[in-house]
Amino acid sequence: MMKPKILLTMLSLFFATAFAESPSDTANFNVLHGAAYYNAVLTPSEAPSVHRNIYTPYLMYGSNLVALGPSNAYGIASYTSNNQTSFLAYLNNMAMLGIATKSFGFSIAFDIDEKLNFFKEKDAYHKEETTEIHGRANNLTLRLAFPMQSIDFLATLRYYQSNDSLAMVDYADSEGKIDYDYHRLAHDIYGAITFTNRPSAKNFSWRTGGSLGREFWWKDSTLKSTIDPDDNYKHTSERDDSYFYASLFYNFGYIVLKSGNARVHVGNNATLNAYIFDRVEDKDNHRKDAYMRGTLTLTPHLLAEYVLNENWVIWASADYSWSSNAYREEYIELYKTEDETKNYFTRFSTKSGRVYTTTGVLFRYKHLTLETSIMSGFYNNPFRGFTGNTILFDFSGIVTF
Fold first, then answer.
1. I need a labelling partner for 46 at 20 to 30 A (CA). Which of 29, 39, 109, 317 fits?
2. What is the predicted pLDDT for the residue at 205?
3. d(CA 358, CA 51)
4. What's the 3-state SS for 320-383?
5. Where residue 352 falls among pLDDT bands split at 50, 70, 90?
6. Residues with Cβ < 8 Å from 242, sequence gap 6 or more?
7. Is the pTM of this model over 0.85?
């Protein structure tokens, strides 16, 4: 008999809060949201969210909360004491530690899902022993943020290591011994700065900045042999697919419609990326290649928010992406010879994406906030979301203290 009573109590609470009268001039749009809102909304004039705050660390100042997101695999906790806020976050495969004060915030994030595979095989017949070690990526990210009067500043520095593999082959017989070592590694170091007028923005808001990075692929091999004199010692080191990259971005949002309980934002996010790859030399064939690539992406977006009352907020967003790519390759044949020839290849292409839409509902009661959303992937393939390829349903909760 308890279950019907519990159900009736929950329904009574829902209708009482959903249809309670709330004066239009007291509507509060600055309700703290979860990942559902943060991932879907692209305008710089969005309402605050836990994720936006931890990625701009000083905004965590004064927070005492626990936030959980089962569908996005994250957990966030913060505690304020003596004019300083400390926070801890688990974001999928990353852990983040940070501190925030009124004047600055700092955080460090690192990978907690590192994997190391070890394989060893010994062939007594061929007198060969093989050892292989494969490591998963390492990721370290530092963030520093602070207010500059009417502007917020954020600096990000990231180091990423991937594709770490090591192979060692040892062969021995009565004639001698062969040792072969092979190591491949990829490094990525990236720095970015961001400015936003959010602290002073009213109807028009913007976010701008740039980044610069270097991805470095390195391959090294060593061969030692006492059997073949020609292979007594050989060492090769190559850099393949290494490049510099840079980007500039400018995002803006404008509140075009606003009433006591509703507002509508429109805007556009523009990003310009450039990739300059290292020259690749083929000394045997006297050929040298170099190429670069550039991408311009425009993403117009729309956000509508409606504050039903102090307990319920309904929002919906939509965005559309368009990109243009330019690719240029230069290859020199017979370089450093009398017959040196330069060849060029240029290609332009454009790509239009589909419209992404998201609808979300936020419920807040005293110290508890619950939020859920439905993503656009639901309308294309209702079964795909359950495989993990597309987020179909998002749910998160926040408890404040």
1. 109
2. 95
3. 18
4. EEEEEEEEEEEEEECCCCCCCEEEEEEEEEEEEEEEEEEEEEEEEECCEEEEEEECCHHHHCCC
5. confident
6. 214, 215, 216, 217, 218, 277, 278
7. no
379 CB-near residues (< 8 Å, 6+ apart): 357
What CA–CA distance (Å, rounded) separates 89 from 51? 10
For residue 227, give both structure tokens.
């059997």
Give pLDDT, residue 221. 74
pLDDT of residue 11: 41
Q: What is the pLDDT of residue 241?
A: 73
Give pLDDT, residue 339: 58
- Reference 223, options 185, 280, 183, 281; nearest CA is 183
CA distance 347 to 352: 17
The bridge status of strand 204-225 relative to strand 233-238 is antiparallel
Buried b or exposed e, range 5-16, using 16+ CB within 10 angstroms: eeeeeeeeeeee
Tokens of 240: 């393949």
Side-chain half-sphere of 59: how many Cα atoms within 13 Å? 18
Q: Which two tokens stand for residue 307?
A: 């504050």
- CA-derived radius of gyration, the chain: 28
Residue 399 has pLDDT above 80, yes or no: yes
